[in-house]
Amino acid sequence: MKGIYSLRKCWRKSALLNYKMDSENPLALILAGQTELWEKLRLQAYRAILHRVDIQCFLMPYEYAQTKAYIEKQLTYAGHPNAIFSEDAMKAVHSFSSGIPRLINRACTQSLVYAYQNRRAIIDDRMVQLVLEGGFLNTGEGMAGAIPFSYATKRTGAGQ
């Protein structure tokens, strides 16, 4: 409901975009969001806002080579230039994420947490699959990306 409320506020403010001063519009509205925003804007209730969009820019999902480069670059930014993910692990991440950066980040983050908990230096495809199939990547319900305590203690032996 929060997103719809925000769009309603935006629609009210879009009336300002109709105001012309010396045949130039002194205001610009910049909308940034995920694909869900565009789906909502296509609804009849928000058609007026969509009609005021002059330029659209979409980031396309990464190909596998781009996903691999993205993961490697993120690890370098984090101060770890050495390979942590095996080639097969990166393929598993790409397959899960379909090349969408936020999903790549989630899969990699949870895989890194799992590897740390299990004292593993290299993440292989089996580890990524455990994280992906184990339901530890939150898809909207519950705690965002949380690894259940019982999973962490079961795998690492902590608390025994």
Word description of this protein:
This protein is mainly alpha-helical. Helix content is 52%, strand content 0%. It contains eight helices and no strands. Residues 139-160 have low confidence and may be disordered.
Short key terms for the protein model shown above:
mainly alpha; disordered C terminus; elongated; about 50% helix; about 160 residues; 8 helices
Look at the structure and give the mean pLDDT. 77
> Sheet bearing the most strands, described?
none
Poorly predicted regions are: 139-160
Please compute the radius of gyration using only Cα atoms: 22 Å
Taking the alpha carbons of the first and last residues, their distance comes to 44 Å
Q: Based on Cα principal axes, name the global outline.
A: elongated
For the secondary structure, the number of strands is 0
Roughly how much helix do the residues carry, as a percent range?
40-55%
- Beta-strand proportion: under 5%
Summarize the structure.
This protein is mainly alpha-helical and 160 residues long.
Outline the fold blueprint.
Elements: H1 2-13, H2 35-41, H3 47-51, H4 64-77, H5 87-97, H6 101-117, H7 125-133, H8 149-156
Helix pairs in contact: 4-5, 5-6, 5-7, 6-7
